[in-house]
Design a protein that fits this description.
about 15% strand; alpha/beta; about 250 residues; about 40% helix; two-stranded parallel ribbon; single chain; 7-stranded parallel beta sheet
């Protein structure tokens, strides 16, 4: 077993059971960061176990971020198992594909549903409320222990005209952008940086040949990325080298 060089940093990565979240958890651990793999559904313990097998420190904890109490619980668990948290990766999404149109499916054949109070509530609970509460929890505990270094990275999506076909998803991500960029200003005196990453089309299991053709013909999409490629940018933003990078939405293409 290869021994990973250990640091004193501890991260919470939400949605760490698959895709970009799992890749980010692994990449952070490979750099010596202890990681709490927060997840809903299967896969989180497998990611944590894989990290431990390669000499890293990791734990998994299942939590529904739609529950307002989950934010405090995640920090309690991370502190108990790994130590004080100074890196927060808001990756999880309560993704629902809702729309104002009567169309039953999008251009790629994925089913659409109308905007309802239920679709709005689920999306905003996980993609806007939970990141806000997690940021607040990090700030409170950070200040209480007199810490002077911290990193917040969130993930967003959508564009200048929102996110047609996934309207609540795009709106909730826009709210998360505002929370995170506000944190960059308000928490700067604590040594905390806060940035958002806008990934390119990323193959987390949903990309088809039709999606690849769409990207190839697009004037604004350049790559279909692998989760590990996106994770590299997230890990950079969570490093010492990114100390001057804060208050940005970094678009990957």
């Amino acid at each position: 077993m290869r021994e990973t060089a250990r640091t004193d940093h501890v991260a919470i990565v939400t949605g760490a059971n698959h895709g970009i979240g799992a890749a980010t958890a692994r990449a952070l651990a490979a750099r010596g960061v202890a990681v709490l793999c927060a997840h809903l559904g299967p896969g989180g313990e497998e990611v944590a176990e894989g990290i431990r097998r390669t000499g890293g420190r990791a734990a998994a904890f299942e939590a529904d971020l739609g529950d307002p109490a989950a934010s405090g619980t995640l920090f309690d668990v991370a502190e108990e198992r790994l130590g004080p948290v100074d890196i927060l990766i808001n990756n999880a999404s309560g993704w629902v594909q809702d729309t104002f149109t009567p169309d039953p499916a999008d251009r790629f054949g994925r089913p659409l549903q109308p905007v309802t109070a239920e679709t709005w509530s689920r999306q905003f609970a996980v993609d806007a409320m939970a990141p806000a509460l997690l940021i607040g929890e990090l700030a409170r505990r950070h200040r209480a222990r007199g810490a002077g270094w911290g990193r917040i990275v969130g993930l967003t999506s959508g564009g200048d005209l929102g996110f047609p076909g996934e309207v609540s998803y795009g709106a909730a991500k826009a709210a998360q952008v505002n929370y995170t960029l506000s944190a960059a200003v308000e928490l700067a005196d604590l040594g905390i940086t806060a940035n958002m990453v806008h990934p390119p089309v990323t193959d987390t299991g949903w990309v088809t040949d039709e999606v690849r053709e769409f990207v190839a013909s697009s004037g604004t999409h350049f790559h279909v990325a692998e989760p590990a490629e996106v994770a590299e940018t997230i890990v950079f933003l969570a490093s010492d080298a990114a100390g001057l990078v804060t208050g940005n939405t970094i678009t990957l293409r």
